[in-house]
Amino acid sequence: MTNQQAKKIDWQKYLLVLFFTGLIFTLGFFFANLISKKNLESLDSLQQNLRVDILSLETQFSILNQTPCENLNESTLTQELYDIAQTLTSVGNNVGKDNPYYLQLKKYYSILEIKHWLLLQRAKKECGLPLTFIIYFYADKKTCPDCDNQGYILTHLRRKYPDLRVYSFDFNLDLSALDALKSIYLIQPNETLPLMIINKEALSGFQSKDKLENILSKYIETTPDDETSTSTSSTSPNDIDL
Predict the structure, then answer these.
(1) How far is residue 73's CA from residue 180's CA, in Å, rounded to a whole number?
(2) Contacts of 65 (CB under 8 A, 6+ apart)
(3) 118 and 165 in contact (C-beta within 8 Å)?
(4) Do residues 133 and 167 lie in contact, with contact meaning Cβ atoms separated by under 8 Å?
(5) Strand ranges (E), the chain
(6) What residue spans define the domains of the chain?
(7) How, if at all, do strands 195-198 and 164-170 pair?
(8) Among 31, 178, 63, which residue's Cα sits nearest to residue 109?
(9) Which of 42, 62, 151, 233 is deepest in the core (most CB within 10 A)?
(10) To which CATH superfamily is domain 130-242 assigned?
(11) Mean pLDDT over each residue of the chain, to the nearest integer
């Protein structure tokens, strides 16, 4: 084989490598754009559904406030609030917890939580519902290292006791309605977190499951965990979950 033939083969090899490299890059770019577009469409659909669900739930609150003891399906209403919480958490995971749009929805959801709490407080008084309430204030891991573990415990207790309602609020969320709620219980800006209010009893700092159940036993019938329920859920109520 002459040098000229060898050079010709080398050039052909380089051109083939260049061609396939370009083809792989083009296909990768195409599929990346396709996946990104689908993700954006999915996120947009998620946000649209969330807005409708929030508006629907708010309308239910307004209707039920007129006659709280008539046709009040409390468990269904509460489950709808839980479902919205999960959807909002998904939005936050997609767009980022510092995204202005997410923070706006988070504020609106916090208002819904307060409305739900007020409605059930009234229903408990006027309709005799045997409910116990925990208002839980949390912050991010940097500000509150124990909040995640506290969240796991509260999720476990909420699922264990059907008559327990847990309302989770970001302590640092800039929301006047939340400030009003804090003022009712004389909560100061420098409070130790996590912070819980159990039927008007304030608890600062991390609280073990046993201690919380001991306090809850004043209001509801508590039971020991069975073998299948001793581990806490992997889902924390921090951020959004009720």
Answers:
(1) 28
(2) 119, 122
(3) no
(4) yes
(5) 132-138, 164-170, 195-198, 201-204
(6) 7-129, 130-242
(7) unpaired
(8) 178
(9) 151
(10) Glutaredoxin (3.40.30.10)
(11) 75
Of 160, 64, 38, the closest CA to residue 120 belongs to 64
Distance CA 182, CA 180 (A): 5
* Cα–Cα distances in angstroms (integers) from residue 214 to residues 106, 158, 183, 195, 218, in the given order: 32, 15, 27, 17, 7
pLDDT tens column, 12-32: 554 444 444 444 444 344 333
> In the prediction, which pLDDT does 242 show?
41
**Contact predicate 140/148, CB 8 Å:** no
Q: What is the pTM of this model?
A: 0.72
pLDDT of amino acid 240 = 43
What does the alpha-carbon distance between residue 181 and residue 186 come to, in Å, rounded to a whole number?
A: 9
- DSSP letter for 232, please: P
Per this entry, what is the length of the chain? 242
Q: How far apart are the first and last CA of the chain?
A: 78
- Least Cα distance to 222 among 212, 234, 231 occurs for 212
| pLDDT: which is higher, 91 or 180 | 180
What is the per-residue pLDDT across 46-88, written as a single tens digit (0 to 9) for each?
Answer: 666 666 666 676 776 676 666 667 666 667 777 777 777 887 7
